[in-house]
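hi! just following up on the protien thing from before. the input was this:
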Amino acid sequence: MNPLLARLHPYPFERLRALVKDIRPNPAFKPISLGIGEPKHPTPELIQHALRNNLQGLASYPATAGEPSLREGITAWIERRYKLKLDPKTQVLPVNGSREALFALAQTVIDPTRPNATVVCPNPFYQIYEGAALLAGANTFFVNSDPARNFAADWRAVPESVWADTQLLYVCSPGNPTGAVMPLAEWQMLFELSERHGFVIASDECYSEIYFRDEPPLGSLEAAAKLGRGDFKNLIAFTSLSKRSNVPGMRSGFVAGDASILKNFLLYRTYHGSAMGLVIQQASIAAWGDEAHVIANRDKYRRKFAQVTPVLAEVLDVALPDAGFYLWADVAQHVTAGDDIAFALGLLAQYNVAVLPGSLLARESQGVNPGAGRIRLALVAEVDECLEAAQRIVQYVKSL
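and the predicted 3d structure came back as:
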Protein backbone atom coordinates (compact mmCIF):
# COMPACT_ATOMS: atom_id res chain seq x y z
CA MET A 1 0.00 0.00 0.00
CA ASN A 2 1.00 3.60 -0.51
CA PRO A 3 2.76 4.43 2.80
CA LEU A 4 1.59 8.03 2.58
CA LEU A 5 -1.98 6.87 3.29
CA ALA A 6 -0.90 6.25 6.88
CA ARG A 7 -0.26 9.99 7.29
CA LEU A 8 -3.90 10.90 6.71
CA HIS A 9 -6.04 11.99 9.65
CA PRO A 10 -9.65 10.85 10.07
CA TYR A 11 -12.11 13.23 8.44
CA PRO A 12 -13.93 15.51 10.97
CA PHE A 13 -17.27 13.78 10.43
CA GLU A 14 -15.69 10.36 10.98
CA ARG A 15 -14.28 11.61 14.28
CA LEU A 16 -17.64 13.08 15.24
CA ARG A 17 -19.49 9.86 14.38
CA ALA A 18 -17.14 7.96 16.69
CA LEU A 19 -17.76 10.46 19.47
CA VAL A 20 -21.57 10.30 19.23
CA LYS A 21 -21.99 6.57 18.57
CA ASP A 22 -23.19 5.85 22.13
CA ILE A 23 -25.38 8.94 22.50
CA ARG A 24 -29.15 8.47 22.48
CA PRO A 25 -30.63 11.87 21.58
CA ASN A 26 -33.72 13.04 23.45
CA PRO A 27 -36.67 11.54 21.50
CA ALA A 28 -38.89 14.47 22.55
CA PHE A 29 -37.20 16.52 19.80
CA LYS A 30 -37.01 15.75 16.10
CA PRO A 31 -33.41 15.62 14.86
CA ILE A 32 -31.96 18.78 13.30
CA SER A 33 -28.47 18.81 11.78
CA LEU A 34 -26.43 22.00 11.49
CA GLY A 35 -23.26 19.97 11.17
CA ILE A 36 -22.67 19.32 7.48
CA GLY A 37 -22.26 22.16 4.98
CA GLU A 38 -24.53 20.63 2.37
CA PRO A 39 -26.93 23.07 0.65
CA LYS A 40 -30.58 22.16 1.25
CA HIS A 41 -32.35 24.85 -0.79
CA PRO A 42 -34.18 23.46 -3.86
CA THR A 43 -32.22 22.97 -7.07
CA PRO A 44 -33.37 25.57 -9.64
CA GLU A 45 -35.77 24.27 -12.29
CA LEU A 46 -33.62 25.58 -15.15
CA ILE A 47 -30.81 23.23 -14.07
CA GLN A 48 -33.17 20.26 -13.71
CA HIS A 49 -34.59 21.08 -17.15
CA ALA A 50 -31.10 21.14 -18.68
CA LEU A 51 -30.30 17.75 -17.14
CA ARG A 52 -33.49 16.14 -18.44
CA ASN A 53 -33.10 17.62 -21.93
CA ASN A 54 -29.52 16.52 -22.49
CA LEU A 55 -29.55 12.85 -21.53
CA GLN A 56 -28.29 11.95 -25.01
CA GLY A 57 -24.90 13.08 -23.70
CA LEU A 58 -24.70 9.86 -21.72
CA ALA A 59 -23.84 8.04 -24.94
CA SER A 60 -20.54 9.89 -25.53
CA TYR A 61 -17.17 10.11 -23.84
CA PRO A 62 -16.46 13.68 -22.71
CA ALA A 63 -13.20 15.51 -23.33
CA THR A 64 -11.19 16.29 -20.20
CA ALA A 65 -10.87 19.94 -21.26
CA GLY A 66 -14.65 20.24 -21.50
CA GLU A 67 -16.78 21.47 -24.36
CA PRO A 68 -15.84 24.87 -25.82
CA SER A 69 -19.35 26.10 -25.02
CA LEU A 70 -18.84 25.35 -21.32
CA ARG A 71 -15.46 27.05 -21.14
CA GLU A 72 -16.95 30.05 -22.95
CA GLY A 73 -19.88 30.07 -20.53
CA ILE A 74 -17.46 30.06 -17.60
CA THR A 75 -15.37 32.93 -18.96
CA ALA A 76 -18.56 34.90 -19.68
CA TRP A 77 -19.56 34.47 -16.02
CA ILE A 78 -16.09 35.56 -14.88
CA GLU A 79 -16.38 38.68 -17.03
CA ARG A 80 -19.81 39.54 -15.58
CA ARG A 81 -18.76 38.83 -12.00
CA TYR A 82 -15.21 40.18 -11.94
CA LYS A 83 -14.94 42.36 -15.10
CA LEU A 84 -12.09 40.17 -16.36
CA LYS A 85 -11.55 38.72 -19.84
CA LEU A 86 -9.96 35.27 -19.75
CA ASP A 87 -9.04 33.02 -22.64
CA PRO A 88 -11.50 30.09 -22.61
CA LYS A 89 -8.97 27.87 -24.39
CA THR A 90 -6.07 28.28 -21.97
CA GLN A 91 -7.14 29.95 -18.71
CA VAL A 92 -10.12 27.88 -17.52
CA LEU A 93 -10.90 24.19 -17.02
CA PRO A 94 -14.12 22.56 -15.82
CA VAL A 95 -13.68 20.30 -12.79
CA ASN A 96 -15.83 17.77 -10.94
CA GLY A 97 -16.43 20.04 -7.99
CA SER A 98 -13.82 22.14 -6.20
CA ARG A 99 -12.96 19.35 -3.73
CA GLU A 100 -11.65 17.03 -6.44
CA ALA A 101 -9.66 19.82 -8.07
CA LEU A 102 -8.18 21.14 -4.81
CA PHE A 103 -6.79 17.67 -4.19
CA ALA A 104 -5.59 17.09 -7.74
CA LEU A 105 -3.74 20.39 -8.06
CA ALA A 106 -1.38 19.43 -5.25
CA GLN A 107 -0.53 16.20 -7.08
CA THR A 108 0.32 18.31 -10.13
CA VAL A 109 2.44 21.09 -8.64
CA ILE A 110 4.24 19.48 -5.68
CA ASP A 111 7.78 18.22 -6.26
CA PRO A 112 8.32 15.79 -3.35
CA THR A 113 11.98 15.29 -4.31
CA ARG A 114 12.80 18.79 -3.11
CA PRO A 115 13.90 18.90 0.55
CA ASN A 116 11.22 20.06 3.00
CA ALA A 117 8.50 20.42 0.36
CA THR A 118 5.80 22.36 2.22
CA VAL A 119 2.13 23.23 1.77
CA VAL A 120 0.82 26.16 3.81
CA CYS A 121 -2.84 26.03 4.95
CA PRO A 122 -5.15 28.23 6.99
CA ASN A 123 -6.19 26.85 10.39
CA PRO A 124 -9.09 25.96 10.85
CA PHE A 125 -9.25 24.56 7.35
CA TYR A 126 -10.99 22.34 4.82
CA GLN A 127 -9.42 18.92 5.41
CA ILE A 128 -8.86 18.26 1.70
CA TYR A 129 -5.93 20.72 1.81
CA GLU A 130 -4.06 18.61 4.34
CA GLY A 131 -4.85 15.29 2.66
CA ALA A 132 -3.75 16.62 -0.71
CA ALA A 133 -0.46 17.82 0.75
CA LEU A 134 0.31 14.58 2.58
CA LEU A 135 -0.47 12.34 -0.40
CA ALA A 136 1.69 14.54 -2.61
CA GLY A 137 4.61 13.85 -0.27
CA ALA A 138 4.75 17.32 1.27
CA ASN A 139 4.74 18.64 4.82
CA THR A 140 1.99 20.96 6.06
CA PHE A 141 2.34 24.23 7.92
CA PHE A 142 -0.83 25.55 9.54
CA VAL A 143 -1.48 29.28 9.91
CA ASN A 144 -3.77 30.02 12.83
CA SER A 145 -6.74 32.32 12.46
CA ASP A 146 -6.62 35.59 14.38
CA PRO A 147 -9.76 36.46 16.42
CA ALA A 148 -8.72 40.11 16.34
CA ARG A 149 -8.88 40.07 12.53
CA ASN A 150 -12.30 38.47 12.08
CA PHE A 151 -10.68 35.03 12.30
CA ALA A 152 -8.71 35.49 9.08
CA ALA A 153 -5.47 33.52 8.80
CA ASP A 154 -2.49 35.44 10.15
CA TRP A 155 -0.14 35.04 7.18
CA ARG A 156 2.34 37.45 8.75
CA ALA A 157 3.05 34.87 11.43
CA VAL A 158 4.63 32.48 8.89
CA PRO A 159 8.44 32.45 9.24
CA GLU A 160 10.45 33.35 6.15
CA SER A 161 12.16 29.95 6.36
CA VAL A 162 8.77 28.26 5.88
CA TRP A 163 7.90 30.43 2.88
CA ALA A 164 11.26 29.47 1.37
CA ASP A 165 10.22 25.77 1.39
CA THR A 166 6.62 26.40 0.35
CA GLN A 167 5.45 24.99 -2.99
CA LEU A 168 1.71 25.47 -2.56
CA LEU A 169 -0.45 27.82 -0.49
CA TYR A 170 -4.14 27.12 0.07
CA VAL A 171 -6.28 30.19 0.63
CA CYS A 172 -10.00 30.07 1.42
CA SER A 173 -11.85 33.36 0.93
CA PRO A 174 -14.64 33.60 1.96
CA GLY A 175 -13.35 31.31 4.65
CA ASN A 176 -14.65 28.01 5.98
CA PRO A 177 -15.69 28.07 8.81
CA THR A 178 -15.18 31.71 9.69
CA GLY A 179 -16.67 33.49 6.66
CA ALA A 180 -13.79 35.99 6.57
CA VAL A 181 -12.95 37.67 3.23
CA MET A 182 -9.36 38.60 2.41
CA PRO A 183 -8.76 42.29 1.58
CA LEU A 184 -6.66 43.54 -1.33
CA ALA A 185 -3.64 44.40 0.87
CA GLU A 186 -3.43 40.81 2.05
CA TRP A 187 -3.57 39.49 -1.51
CA GLN A 188 -0.75 41.87 -2.41
CA MET A 189 1.39 40.46 0.40
CA LEU A 190 0.75 36.86 -0.73
CA PHE A 191 1.40 37.66 -4.39
CA GLU A 192 4.73 39.26 -3.46
CA LEU A 193 5.68 36.23 -1.36
CA SER A 194 4.73 33.93 -4.25
CA GLU A 195 6.86 36.01 -6.61
CA ARG A 196 9.81 35.83 -4.23
CA HIS A 197 9.62 32.12 -3.43
CA GLY A 198 7.89 30.65 -6.49
CA PHE A 199 5.00 28.87 -4.78
CA VAL A 200 1.55 28.38 -6.32
CA ILE A 201 -1.53 29.93 -4.70
CA ALA A 202 -4.70 27.81 -4.76
CA SER A 203 -7.62 30.09 -3.93
CA ASP A 204 -10.74 28.22 -2.77
CA GLU A 205 -13.70 30.54 -3.51
CA CYS A 206 -16.66 28.15 -3.37
CA TYR A 207 -18.62 30.45 -1.00
CA SER A 208 -18.14 33.60 -3.08
CA GLU A 209 -21.78 34.02 -4.10
CA ILE A 210 -23.35 33.84 -0.63
CA TYR A 211 -22.58 37.14 1.06
CA PHE A 212 -24.22 39.67 3.37
CA ARG A 213 -22.59 43.00 2.51
CA ASP A 214 -23.52 45.30 -0.36
CA GLU A 215 -20.32 44.48 -2.27
CA PRO A 216 -19.53 40.90 -3.38
CA PRO A 217 -16.36 39.35 -1.95
CA LEU A 218 -13.09 40.19 -3.67
CA GLY A 219 -11.86 37.26 -5.77
CA SER A 220 -8.22 36.26 -6.21
CA LEU A 221 -8.20 36.84 -9.99
CA GLU A 222 -9.87 40.19 -9.46
CA ALA A 223 -7.26 41.11 -6.84
CA ALA A 224 -4.42 40.08 -9.17
CA ALA A 225 -5.81 42.24 -11.98
CA LYS A 226 -6.20 45.24 -9.65
CA LEU A 227 -2.55 44.84 -8.66
CA GLY A 228 -1.28 44.64 -12.24
CA ARG A 229 -0.85 40.86 -12.29
CA GLY A 230 -3.19 40.11 -15.18
CA ASP A 231 -1.17 37.08 -16.27
CA PHE A 232 -2.24 35.43 -12.97
CA LYS A 233 1.24 33.97 -12.53
CA ASN A 234 1.25 31.09 -10.01
CA LEU A 235 -2.44 31.68 -9.18
CA ILE A 236 -5.33 29.24 -9.61
CA ALA A 237 -8.87 30.09 -8.46
CA PHE A 238 -11.43 27.38 -7.64
CA THR A 239 -15.18 27.95 -7.89
CA SER A 240 -18.12 25.56 -7.58
CA LEU A 241 -21.79 25.46 -8.44
CA SER A 242 -22.63 23.45 -5.30
CA LYS A 243 -23.32 26.38 -2.98
CA ARG A 244 -24.03 29.01 -5.63
CA SER A 245 -26.74 26.99 -7.37
CA ASN A 246 -27.73 24.34 -4.77
CA VAL A 247 -26.41 21.40 -6.81
CA PRO A 248 -23.85 19.61 -4.59
CA GLY A 249 -24.75 16.31 -6.28
CA MET A 250 -23.75 17.58 -9.72
CA ARG A 251 -20.09 17.90 -8.75
CA SER A 252 -19.42 20.80 -11.08
CA GLY A 253 -17.06 23.73 -10.87
CA PHE A 254 -14.07 25.24 -12.60
CA VAL A 255 -10.49 26.37 -12.09
CA ALA A 256 -9.07 29.50 -13.69
CA GLY A 257 -5.80 31.40 -13.76
CA ASP A 258 -2.20 30.76 -14.78
CA ALA A 259 -2.30 29.18 -18.25
CA SER A 260 1.03 27.38 -17.84
CA ILE A 261 -0.14 25.64 -14.67
CA LEU A 262 -3.49 24.74 -16.23
CA LYS A 263 -1.70 23.17 -19.20
CA ASN A 264 0.06 20.74 -16.85
CA PHE A 265 -3.08 20.33 -14.75
CA LEU A 266 -4.96 19.26 -17.88
CA LEU A 267 -2.24 16.68 -18.60
CA TYR A 268 -2.58 15.26 -15.09
CA ARG A 269 -6.37 15.20 -15.32
CA THR A 270 -6.29 13.43 -18.68
CA TYR A 271 -4.49 10.49 -17.08
CA HIS A 272 -6.50 10.73 -13.87
CA GLY A 273 -9.79 10.34 -15.75
CA SER A 274 -11.36 13.56 -14.51
CA ALA A 275 -13.58 14.48 -17.45
CA MET A 276 -16.97 16.02 -16.65
CA GLY A 277 -19.91 14.17 -18.23
CA LEU A 278 -21.65 15.91 -21.12
CA VAL A 279 -25.01 15.96 -19.33
CA ILE A 280 -23.45 17.77 -16.37
CA GLN A 281 -21.65 20.14 -18.74
CA GLN A 282 -24.93 21.22 -20.33
CA ALA A 283 -26.57 21.74 -16.94
CA SER A 284 -23.50 23.72 -15.86
CA ILE A 285 -23.78 25.99 -18.89
CA ALA A 286 -27.36 26.73 -17.88
CA ALA A 287 -26.34 27.43 -14.29
CA TRP A 288 -23.40 29.73 -15.08
CA GLY A 289 -25.56 31.60 -17.57
CA ASP A 290 -28.30 32.54 -15.10
CA GLU A 291 -27.95 34.95 -12.19
CA ALA A 292 -31.60 35.26 -11.12
CA HIS A 293 -31.58 32.02 -9.15
CA VAL A 294 -28.31 33.03 -7.46
CA ILE A 295 -29.76 36.34 -6.32
CA ALA A 296 -32.86 34.58 -4.97
CA ASN A 297 -30.69 32.03 -3.17
CA ARG A 298 -28.53 34.75 -1.63
CA ASP A 299 -31.62 36.67 -0.47
CA LYS A 300 -32.92 33.52 1.18
CA TYR A 301 -29.69 33.13 3.16
CA ARG A 302 -29.72 36.80 4.10
CA ARG A 303 -33.25 36.57 5.50
CA LYS A 304 -32.39 33.37 7.35
CA PHE A 305 -29.23 34.74 8.94
CA ALA A 306 -31.04 37.96 9.87
CA GLN A 307 -33.54 35.91 11.88
CA VAL A 308 -31.28 33.25 13.36
CA THR A 309 -28.17 35.25 14.33
CA PRO A 310 -29.90 37.57 16.85
CA VAL A 311 -31.54 34.59 18.56
CA LEU A 312 -28.18 32.91 19.13
CA ALA A 313 -26.48 36.18 20.03
CA GLU A 314 -28.65 36.36 23.16
CA VAL A 315 -26.51 33.65 24.74
CA LEU A 316 -23.45 33.11 22.50
CA ASP A 317 -20.62 35.23 21.15
CA VAL A 318 -21.61 35.01 17.48
CA ALA A 319 -21.86 37.52 14.65
CA LEU A 320 -22.92 37.72 11.02
CA PRO A 321 -20.01 36.57 8.81
CA ASP A 322 -18.76 38.41 5.74
CA ALA A 323 -19.93 35.54 3.55
CA GLY A 324 -20.69 31.81 3.44
CA PHE A 325 -23.44 29.91 5.23
CA TYR A 326 -21.76 29.18 8.57
CA LEU A 327 -21.91 30.79 11.99
CA TRP A 328 -18.69 30.44 14.00
CA ALA A 329 -19.90 30.60 17.59
CA ASP A 330 -17.88 30.86 20.79
CA VAL A 331 -19.08 28.38 23.43
CA ALA A 332 -15.98 28.29 25.62
CA GLN A 333 -17.47 30.13 28.58
CA HIS A 334 -20.36 27.69 28.83
CA VAL A 335 -18.41 24.45 29.28
CA THR A 336 -15.55 23.30 31.46
CA ALA A 337 -12.14 24.11 29.98
CA GLY A 338 -13.85 25.52 26.87
CA ASP A 339 -14.55 21.99 25.63
CA ASP A 340 -16.42 22.46 22.34
CA ILE A 341 -16.78 18.70 21.90
CA ALA A 342 -18.51 18.39 25.28
CA PHE A 343 -20.83 21.24 24.28
CA ALA A 344 -21.76 19.53 21.01
CA LEU A 345 -22.32 16.13 22.62
CA GLY A 346 -24.52 17.60 25.34
CA LEU A 347 -26.56 19.57 22.81
CA LEU A 348 -27.15 16.43 20.76
CA ALA A 349 -28.10 14.33 23.76
CA GLN A 350 -30.47 16.83 25.34
CA TYR A 351 -31.96 18.70 22.37
CA ASN A 352 -31.22 16.50 19.31
CA VAL A 353 -29.35 19.25 17.45
CA ALA A 354 -26.10 18.27 15.69
CA VAL A 355 -23.31 20.84 15.30
CA LEU A 356 -19.64 20.48 14.41
CA PRO A 357 -17.07 21.11 17.19
CA GLY A 358 -14.57 23.68 15.99
CA SER A 359 -11.56 21.79 17.31
CA LEU A 360 -12.26 18.99 14.80
CA LEU A 361 -11.79 21.48 11.95
CA ALA A 362 -8.30 22.52 13.04
CA ARG A 363 -4.89 21.17 14.04
CA GLU A 364 -2.82 22.20 17.00
CA SER A 365 -0.26 24.69 15.70
CA GLN A 366 2.19 26.73 17.73
CA GLY A 367 0.67 25.12 20.81
CA VAL A 368 -2.88 26.25 19.98
CA ASN A 369 -5.93 24.68 18.37
CA PRO A 370 -7.67 27.78 16.96
CA GLY A 371 -10.97 25.94 16.61
CA ALA A 372 -11.14 24.98 20.28
CA GLY A 373 -14.03 26.48 22.21
CA ARG A 374 -16.10 27.13 19.09
CA ILE A 375 -18.77 25.34 17.08
CA ARG A 376 -19.64 25.60 13.40
CA LEU A 377 -23.32 25.98 12.58
CA ALA A 378 -24.29 25.31 8.95
CA LEU A 379 -27.52 27.25 8.31
CA VAL A 380 -28.37 25.25 5.21
CA ALA A 381 -31.88 24.03 6.02
CA GLU A 382 -35.06 26.06 5.62
CA VAL A 383 -35.49 29.01 7.97
CA ASP A 384 -38.09 27.38 10.26
CA GLU A 385 -35.80 24.44 10.99
CA CYS A 386 -32.79 26.69 11.58
CA LEU A 387 -34.83 28.89 13.94
CA GLU A 388 -36.04 25.84 15.85
CA ALA A 389 -32.44 24.68 16.21
CA ALA A 390 -31.35 28.13 17.39
CA GLN A 391 -34.08 28.22 20.02
CA ARG A 392 -33.05 24.80 21.30
CA ILE A 393 -29.42 25.96 21.50
CA VAL A 394 -30.55 28.95 23.56
CA GLN A 395 -32.43 26.63 25.94
CA TYR A 396 -29.38 24.38 26.21
CA VAL A 397 -27.02 27.25 26.97
CA LYS A 398 -29.37 28.62 29.63
CA SER A 399 -29.55 25.17 31.21
CA LEU A 400 -25.75 25.19 31.52
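The chain has two domains: 3-42+293-399, 59-290.
The mean pLDDT is 96.
cheers
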